[in-house]
Amino acid sequence: MAKRRDIDGVLIFDKPLEVSSNNILQRIKYLYRANKAGHTGALDPLASGMLPICFGESTKMATMMLDSDKEYEVVVHFGVRTSTSDREGEIISENEVNLTLEQIQATIKEHFTGLIKQKPTIWSAIKYQGKPLYEYARKGIEVPVPTREINIYEIEILDWQQPFLKLRVYCSKGTYIRTLADDLGQVLGCGAHVKELRRTKIDGFENCQMVSIDTIEELAKDNNLEALDSLLLPLETPVNMYPALNLSDAQLLKLCLGMTLIYAFAEQNNREQFDQIEQLFRIYHHQYGFIGMAKNTAKNRLRGYRLRSNTEIIAKELKARGVSVDKADEHEKKLINQLRKS
Fold first, then answer.
1. Which residues constitute the catalytic centre (predicted)?
2. 6, 8, 14, 44: which is the annotated catalytic residue?
3. 71-200: which CATH number, 3.30.310.50, 3.30.230.10, 3.40.50.2000, 3.30.2350.10?
4. Of 104, 142, 274, 328, which is least packed with CB atoms within 10 Å of its CB?
5. pLDDT of 124 over the 90 cut
């Protein structure tokens, strides 16, 4: 067996059907010979589509993608309601389907567009007292399931061949498509469940080509690690939606030492906005590249939030070159004073 290695980056993976997100993650981790890997938002075994896999330092940024909006294509089967709201569940009820396209369109417009309340299925991974709800469901234990507010930005009918309805759904985080299908069936009075589900997009990765397991296995078979690594996006890709700050040597040293930066936004055009709201920033340096994430903790104050694991090494190198934290805020403070006078 080849030796495990440290690699950083993001693979935009096309998850196949009939396999759990964790099982396929472990398979990809093995094929890449990676020491560390994680995924960003699980897909059920019956679902396929976009599943970003983060390696190494990118795993620190992975949780930030959980807030991203997502797009799905789903085939809803009307007339059959199941215990899990998908085709794998036990049939709860069966009803005749006598729906028109106009009925469905009107119901979607009235009940399933914009901000709506949704109560996820008990067969979900939402935690209750530290355990996912599906563990309680398997044991037949009833627990409270909180209703949450979600946003259905767009919902488009792609095909209608009774009793099957194909939809494109662009929605906010926390949306359960299975619950959406079940609720739609209940409102229409015939019941429904998810027959097919595919995640087609995650915000920030709209133009990324998804990679199949067949491609990865073929390259791994030839031990072509260089070709495998060429499929990875830069490690900071999951946080590209946040504004970037470029730090000086002294500023970087201060951040790596866990200290607070003052006037860090001086050269930003919208610096006053950053003074008023909490905001995450991508941190860069001309020599060390992407350093990690930082957050403004108060007016004109910036602290490290999720930094790369090599910050201690960076700090030692900067100190060895004579860099001092004393000069970290001088330039920015002078610039702020000049701007206030102008």
1. 44 (nucleophile)
2. 44
3. 3.30.2350.10
4. 142
5. no
